[in-house]
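re the bet — no i am not wrong, look at it urself. input seq straight from the record:
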Amino acid sequence: MLKRTVPEGEPEIITADVVVIGSGSAGMAAALTAAKGGATVIVLEKSHLLGGTSAMSGAGTWVPGNHLMLAEGIADSPEETLAYLRACAPEGWQATEDKLWQAFAENSGAMLAFVEANTPLEFAITHEADPFAEYPGGKRGGRTISPKLLSRNILGPYKRKLRGSTLPHIFTYQELAHDIQRRFFKTVFRMAPVLAWRWLTNRRGQGSALMAGLIRGALDAGCRLELEAVGRRLLTDEDGVRITGVEVEQRGTLRRYMARRAVVLATGGFEWDEEMRKEHFPGPVDYIGSPRTNTGDGQRMAAAVGAELAHMDQANMTSLVPTFYEGRLHGIPLQFHTVPNAILVNRDGKRFVSEFRFNLGEIIDERDAAGQPVNLPVWLISDGRFFGKSGLLRWFAMLDRKWVTKAASIRELARRLKLPEDALDETVTRYNGFAAAGRDDDFKRGQTPLEAERAAVSGLMEPIVKPPFIAIPFNRSFLGTKGGARTNEAGQVLRADGSIIAGLYCAGIAMASPFGTRAVGSGTTIGPNMTWGYICANHILRQNA
């Protein structure tokens, strides 16, 4: 049972076995797993809404070795997953992250089976190739999944507390993946009766389905949810060695949530904290697509008790376009750059990457020895046919009038962008030659399995020749930072000397991600988030049985 005591003159004290801070996919997976294992669990959420960044997401979920792919005859194993992670990791990462990769590879499939068995969630394969499918252990489909439709009504009184999204969650991830964004109106007209039924029954896909299912499962397992609970500091025992709880401010009242077994930090990123973001990501930022509550609370609380923070320069970065969310300018994920008559150029007016590459954020964010960006600012360059090939993008462009720059010639466009005129003119001319030949000799656009999938949808290359010529900023845009407390393979938080901070675990994008910016599959954030929540909770249950 949960214990509640109110010592005179002291903050209210509430006690459970496990206290989870954050209600996104990592936190709810941890809470569900701990509760099903017999622990009493309290989940603390900073916002008045549940679900965090995960609820806003498209819920592409990368889960190697999942039972869905195995049932379809797509072979996979922890050994293949580990070989793949080692093959496509950034240089030097294996030395610090290999044990975490092994733990993920061994637990990802079990996590998904557990979630499906203990929540209303059902998943389906998206059949997207791994972005490095040509590497050892890579797969041309099966590892990326996403939830089937689920009614938000299953949350009962909490259904209005589920965080909404900028994305159209009335569609599934799989439906969006079939290029709805470019044939939106035709698709809506064709699907109108189905969409009307979904609207009436409150059935949604993507992050809405994911978090509705996880939260329902956690509630059914006996978890207690506390909203508007802002974490202020972690609490320790008298010796200052073991974490025993967290002090929060909740609706103007100071409370202490004490944990008999452990505290799990699953508080999200720090991308909305301008000071922290500028320190770790110098240079221009276009848009941010996560909840504004992602201000680094978990990172600061962990550091205050001696945790080592690592990978603070890593993030989930993707192409975002302007929209409004909660009454303010915000970002919404949209792959507007994968059209045949568009290229990306850096501050020197030169192409530097295949525009169809999956991990564009990593290349855009490339740093020099001093940690400063070498490509920023980055621009998308196209011509007068661009908006006709980009579906709804014209609508989003109207929401931020400064977003698009137009000019009658490439040289005039270069002057307006303060780019070298000769360099930009030469870059466009060279690209047009590749388009005419149907082959990109500089950056091999469309020549990997995943890039070929994208080219099959949008077309590979067309020349940039029709005025007016346009430019759109294509700098860093954040769905979430991925740096935080360094952990071991069990999710336990570590000090700089490698020792364990007893009673403290960390999961999701609040931890130092063992994958970092380089995504190894569609859904490299949510799949690992849930798996690390599952790993943390299982270790807590074993350690404190």
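see?? DSSP finds 17 helices and 25 strands in the chain. told u. also The two ends are 16 Å apart (CA to CA). so pay up
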